[in-house]
TrEMBL record:
Gene3D superfamilies: 3.10.50.40. Also involved in hydrogenase metallocenter assembly, probably by participating in the nickel insertion step. This function in hydrogenase biosynthesis requires chaperone activity and the presence of the metal-binding domain, but not PPIase activity. It is found in: Cytoplasm. GO terms for molecular function: peptidyl-prolyl cis-trans isomerase activity. It catalyses: [protein]-peptidylproline (omega=180) = [protein]-peptidylproline (omega=0). Its EC number is 5.2.1.8. This is Peptidyl-prolyl cis-trans isomerase. Belongs to the FKBP-type PPIase family. One of its GO terms (biological process) is protein refolding.
């Protein structure tokens, strides 16, 4: 395998409807750096950036399978409202951290009724085709320490 690189990119992410979901190009944000081969970013984006050099610009569409996966219906389920003890107002769109057998997990409220709150533990971008507009800002060799740690320093 080639020497892993640290790649720094500016990106804008839009969905199928053309709505901007995320961007590194807004004020106060830094470009994103990731270590190749360390699953720092989604597969579909990383593979499109293989072999790219500083200054390269590209548009990449990533299907759910190479992004945040398909929506798993089993992760959408009603829980009793009294599970939210101490929370006065519960509204769709709110996020909570839930304890699960797999560790802490962010869940989103999708529906609220008198008795139950329906929560969704899928990644917010699951099931979506993601459209990235990317510019490679910088590319350098990863240090040994970065490779050991699996992230950028
Ligand atoms: Zn480290």
């Amino acid at each position: 395998m080639a020497q892993p690189r640290v790649v720094t990119i500016h990106y804008t992410l839009t969905n199928d409807q053309g709505e901007e979901l995320d961007s590194s190009r807004v004020e106060g944000r830094e470009p994103l750096s990731y270590l190749e081969g360390a699953q720092n970013i989604i597969n579909g984006l990383e593979s499109a950036l293989n072999e790219k050099a500083a200054g390269d610009q590209l548009k990449v569409s990533v299907a759910p399978a190479d992004g945040y996966g398909e929506v798993n219906e089993e992760l959408i389920q009603p829980v009793p409202r009294n599970a939210f003890e101490g929370v006065d107002t519960i509204e769709p769109g709110m996020q909570f951290q839930a304890q699960t057998p797999g560790g802490p997990q962010i869940v989103r409220v999708v529906e609220v009724s008198e008795e139950t709150v329906t929560i969704d533990a899928n990644h917010p971008l699951a099931g979506q085709t993601l459209h990235f507009d990317v510019e490679v800002v910088e590319v350098r060799e990863a240090s040994e320490e970065e490779q050991e740690h699996g992230h950028v320093h």
